[in-house]
Amino acid sequence: MYLNSQNIFKIGASNLLFFSLLCLTSCTEETEIQTYYIPPEYEGPVVAWKLPPNWGENPELSGPMAGSFHVKTNSGPQGRIGVMPFREAVSTLSITNMFGMELGYEKFKEDTLSQVLTTKKVGQKKFEWIHLTERDSPSDPKTALLAVLRQKDETWLFPFVANAALIDQEMNSFISFLDSTTVRAGKKVIRAPRPISAAPTDKPTGAPTWDAPDHWITGKASTVRIASYTVSDEDGNELDFSITSFPGDVGGLQSNVNRWLTQIELPKIESLESTPYLTSYSIDEKDAHLFLAENTEKTIYGALLFGKSRSWFFKIMGDTSLAKVEKENFLNLLTTVCFHDH
User: Fold this and answer.
1) Model confidence at 9: pLDDT above 60
2) Alpha carbon of 11 to those of 3, 157, 176, 248, 252: distances in Å?
3) Strand partners of residue 37
4) What is the pLDDT of residue 327?
5) Domain of 172, in residue numbers
6) Which end of the chain is more exposed for a tag (fewer CB within 10 A), N or C?
7) Boundary-marking domain end, from 134, 152, 184
8) Residue 204 DSSP label
């Protein structure tokens, strides 16, 4: 049970619910008070918050999101702020890599996590504070500010994803929002969606299904990286395939194209009009973009689909010689993608 409403602070439902009825009979003026006990049907966690005046609620939630918000600006809604409950065992390292790898970071390890991790006390709550700024994007870098709250047997993640300037501008509002949150542990332990496999029944709400080649090896998935596969050959060359999804457009088409180009050490594009890397494409009858870029050593083949409320990225990256072998398999996979709830 998640309680959320713009600009209204609500507390979680109590474990016992009582109410009284005033029953007036036709033959007496005495009031009879009867009290009834109603056992609660819900035993899960409850979270409540007070929304800053210049933030708005996103009506559509997907996956494990308990709340989703944007910042109101003169240019329209900007940025994405979320409330996400996680399973007890989720590690800070896993959360950091979930966002970091999509921002161009090498995979963090325990000894390198301190580069982006601090702690911050907000009111009476102590948060793990993870600050990730998109690599190699000095003009308008995308930033993920992740506040992680651990309480009893539960973990709550509050991500703020936007360009760096907007996050700096809204820092006081974000801190005020975190201070206002009330989290009540439930009798039932929070369970985030299990890492998905190729089976459609394992996918979170809103995610598509697809058919992967049999020789692709299923890897570890997460809330953002909803699919992960590894492809290798006898010479030790490898490719990494992922399907990732984020609320909003996470910077738009050009920003994400430039992010991918920097990952394989190619120069960024100045304009979308003359880029050789993009062509129009269709995924499940939805407008998308096909991205093909390579150098002598590394290649990225990808597809970018920007929906009404979420972005979807399909990307295979790694050794150029192996990528050429697997290109047809990658393109065939894209033709099998199906968004069942759209």
Assistant:
1) no
2) 8, 19, 17, 28, 37
3) 18
4) 95
5) 46-184
6) C
7) 184
8) P
Give the mean model confidence (pLDDT) for residues 120-133: 94
Report d(CA 74, CA 41) in Å as an integer.
Answer: 43
Residue 224 and residue 99: Cα distance in Å, rounded? 8
- Residue whose C-alpha is closest to residue 243's, from 215, 265, 218: 218
In the numeric block, the tokens 């100045």 are attached to 270
CB of 204 closer than 8 Å to CB of 244? no
Write the CA distances from 90 to 56, 99, 100, 157, integer angstroms: 29, 14, 16, 10
Q: Is residue 11 part of a domain?
A: no
pLDDT digits 0-9 by tens, 221-269: 766 788 899 998 888 899 999 998 887 777 789 888 988 998 999 999 8
Q: Which of 153, 108, 152 is nearest to 130 (CA)?
A: 108
pLDDT at 14 exceeding the cut of 90: no
pLDDT tens per residue across span 80-112: 898 887 756 578 888 898 888 878 888 899 999
Specify whether the CB–CB gap between 186 and 44 falls below 8 A: yes
